[in-house]
Specification:
Length: about 270
C-alpha cells in the first residue's frame, strides 16, 4: 500500500504531532494562572508582564476565596495557581482526593508579634496582655511563634494545633485574649502585643520594621507561599519557564519595591 506524502498529508501529520505535544503538557499557547485578589495577584501580574517579553503569554485569573483556585486547578480550568502554603495544599489534596504539587516558592507572608508599646521582645513585662487569633490554625500559629520567641513553652509535638491548654510553661505569666484575626491590629492600643498575620498587617497599614518585634522564620511552613500545579503536569516546559521568570531578579526587585518588607520574596 502506497502512503500519500503530499502537502496535505504532511500538514495533517505535523498537526497531529503538535496536538500530541500539547496533550502531553509540553506546549501551551497561554498559561492561565489563578491567584487570590491582592498581593498574590499583583505579583503574578508582574510575572505575566515579564513573561510576555520572553515570549510566554500568561493570563491571570483572580479569585476571591481560598477553595475555588485549587478546584479549578484540579479540574484543568487553570494551569497553575499562586495563593497558598504547602500545608493548605496538602490538606486540600487529602480532603478532595486531589493531586496537586508545589512547583516552587512564591512569596513570604510571615506572622509577627506586633506592639505599639515595646520595641524589643525582651522588653515585654510580667503579666503582659497578649492577643492571639481565635481561629484554630492561626491561634496555634501564634502560640508557636510566642514559643519560638522564648516567651512560653508548649507540649511536645503539638504543632499548629496548639491551644492555650497546651502551654506548659509561662514564666512571664502572660495573660492571653483570643479575638478575630481581623481585629488584632486595632487591639494594639489595648494590649501589650498581638500575633498578627501579614494580610491583616498590610490592610491595617502596619510596618513590620516599626511595629514588628518578632517575625516568623523565613522557612516557617505557613509563611512560605507556593505555586501549585497538577502532579502529572509538574515537568511541563512552559510551567518551568514560568517559574524561572518568577524566580528572576526582576520579580525579586518588584516585590521588594512594591511591598516594602510586608511581602518578601520566598526565593
Amino acid at each position: 500500500m502506497k502512503i500519500n506524502t503530499g502537502p496535505l498529508s504532511k500538514l495533517i501529520f505535523t498537526s497531529l504531532i503538535l496536538l500530541g505535544l500539547t496533550a502531553c503538557g509540553q506546549e501551551k499557547t497561554v498559561l492561565k494562572i489563578g491567584a487570590t485578589v491582592g498581593p498574590h495577584a499583583e505579583v503574578v501580574e508582574a510575572v505575566a508582564q515579564e513573561a510576555k517579553k520572553q515570549g510566554l503569554d500568561v493570563e491571570v485569573i483572580e479569585f476571591s476565596d481560598y477553595i475555588t483556585p485549587n478546584a479549578a486547578l484540579e479540574s484543568g480550568d487553570i494551569d497553575l495557581n499562586s495563593y497558598q502554603h504547602k500545608p493548605f495544599m496538602d490538606n486540600y489534596n487529602k480532603s478532595a482526593n486531589a493531586h496537586l504539587v508545589s512547583l516552587g516558592r512564591s512569596i513570604l507572608m510571615r506572622m509577627g508579634i506586633y506592639s505599639s508599646k515595646y520595641q524589643h521582645i525582651q522588653d515585654l513585662p510580667d503579666n503582659a496582655l497578649v492577643a492571639i487569633p481565635n481561629d484554630p490554625t492561626n491561634g496555634g500559629r501564634g502560640l508557636l511563634l510566642l514559643a519560638d520567641a522564648g516567651l512560653i513553652t508548649l507540649k511536645d509535638n503539638v504543632g499548629y494545633k496548639a491551644t492555650l491548654q497546651d502551654v506548659v510553661k509561662n514564666p512571664k505569666h502572660l495573660k492571653f485574649v483570643e479575638m478575630e484575626a481581623a481585629q488584632l491590629p486595632r487591639s494594639l492600643e489595648d494590649v501589650d502585643v498581638a500575633t498578627i498575620t501579614m494580610n491583616y498587617v498590610m490592610s491595617a497599614g502596619l510596618d513590620p520594621k516599626q511595629n514588628g518585634i518578632y517575625l516568623e522564620a523565613k522557612d516557617a511552613p505557613l509563611a512560605v507561599m507556593i505555586v501549585a500545579a497538577k502532579a502529572d503536569q509538574k515537568d511541563n516546559k512552559s510551567y518551568q519557564k514560568f517559574m524561572k521568570i518568577f524566580h528572576s531578579q526582576v520579580i525579586r526587585d518588584f516585590i521588594q519595591n512594591k511591598f516594602k518588607g510586608t511581602i518578601e520574596p520566598a526565593f
